[in-house]
Amino acid sequence: MTSTLLIVQIILAIAITITVLLQKSSSIGLGAYSGSNESVFGAKGPTGFLAKLTFTLAFAFIINTLALGYLYTAQNSSSVADTIVPKNNAAVPSAPVTPVMPKSSAPAAPSTPAKK
């Protein structure tokens, strides 16, 4: 499901880019010489149609982004840090272990002499 939404996200990003680039800029520039293209979209020109199309695509892009974020976090509840293994493949102990001292056969230390 997330791969399908990711493909839709890429397509929406490309479509938004194209519709923004098709719109007439505020400074006319070289667009003043190509007035015949405006009659394709009606009497008002492409501004109304392209503005509505840009808004619709942007709204779909935002909804798709939210859906991708929700599905990704619901799908991956574990962290990447949980799968890290130390380089020497040693397991990290959970608590320090106190060694049990065996009874030694060495003689006991001499005690201090009693005072007279």
From TrEMBL:
This is Preprotein translocase subunit SecG (TC 3.A.5.1.1). It holds the Pfam family SecG. Residues 92-116 are annotated as: Disordered. It is a multi-pass membrane protein. Residues 102-116 have a biased composition (Low complexity). PANTHER family: PROTEIN-EXPORT MEMBRANE PROTEIN SECG. Belongs to the SecG family. It is found in: Cell membrane. One of its GO terms (molecular function) is protein-transporting ATPase activity. The keyword RNA-binding does not apply. One of its GO terms (biological process) is protein secretion. The chain crosses the membrane at residues 51-72. The keyword Membrane applies. Keywords: Cell membrane, Membrane, Protein transport, Translocation, Transmembrane, Transmembrane helix, Transport. GO terms for cellular component: plasma membrane. InterPro entries: SecG.
